[in-house]
Amino acid sequence: MTKMNDSYRHKGLRKKLVEEVRSKGIRDENVLAALEAVPRHFFLDSSFLEIAYQDKPFPIGAGQTISQPYTVAYQTELLKVEKGLKVLEVGTGSGYQACILEEMGARVFSIERHHSLYRKTKLLLAAMNYRAKLFYGDGYKGLPAYAPFDRILVTAAAPFVPDAFLDQLKPGGILVIPVGVGDTQVMKRITKVDEENTEEERFGYFRFVPLLGHKSR
Ligand code: SAM
């Protein structure tokens, strides 16, 4: 399958992308190394092969998108990923973000609401030898059976911060989530200090597809 071919040309385009993302302000070398390691063109339809390394979001089917690499890097940097941490991603989509987290040594659990994306991504990640555990379901509820998590990353726009996410974080754990109902959302980093207390930081504005409600498909 030509799509699974990671050529020197693709590797070169990836290096350029990493420099572009670095020039936009990403400083965490582990994030940048992961961006250089994961072949983004594998996650896109073959018609996007030539443009897979542009710093842009692209459609992945079911009306959803693979996030812009800068946004992936930004959220990952905020998440303070370390080797061995247990990370829940809400919104698997193409699986690209899950692979970035795994490249950084995280134990990744990821949940997706669209069955077609869940199935396609499960096959792709297995073919690429990634071990992230993928789940089909409603991410609003988190993943209680596998909680608690050291980190939770939400990759779709949430109208509010669901209690389930804070409940499923370990004390000292970090949640990164874009929050807002309009065209743009504010990126929040919420640290669960202990069972009673959280600390919230706000970062820039981003544009995400919305987190789907319980009834939508
Ligand atoms: N992280 C993805 C990637 O690397 O390709 C991109 C995420 S895309 C911007 C948002 C994803 O969240 C979509 O795949 C969408 O189907 C999924 N999603 C939306 N609502 C959800 C929900 N309630 N539970 C789980 N996933 C959801």
Explained architecture:
- By secondary structure, this protein is α/β, with parallel strands linked by helices.
- It has a domain at 57-206: Rossmann fold.
- The chain has six helices and nine strands.
- It has a seven-stranded mixed sheet with strand order 5-4-3-6-7-8-9. The chain has a two-stranded antiparallel sheet with strand order 1-2.
- β7 (169-179) and β8 (185-192) form a beta hairpin.
- The chain starts with 7 loop residues before the first helix and ends in an 11-residue tail after the last strand.
- Bound molecules: S-adenosylmethionine (SAM).
- S-adenosylmethionine binds next to β2, α4 and β4.
- S-adenosylmethionine is lined by residues 64-67, 90-91, 93-94, 96-97, 111-114, 117, 138-140, 155-156, 208-209, 211-212.
Helix-strand category: alpha/beta
Query: What share of residues is helical?
Result: 25-40%
Mean pLDDT across residues: 95
Strand content: 25-35%
The name of the CATH architecture of the domain at 57-206 is 3-Layer(aba) Sandwich
Considering the protein shown, what is the CATH homologous superfamily of the domain at 57-206? Vaccinia Virus protein VP39
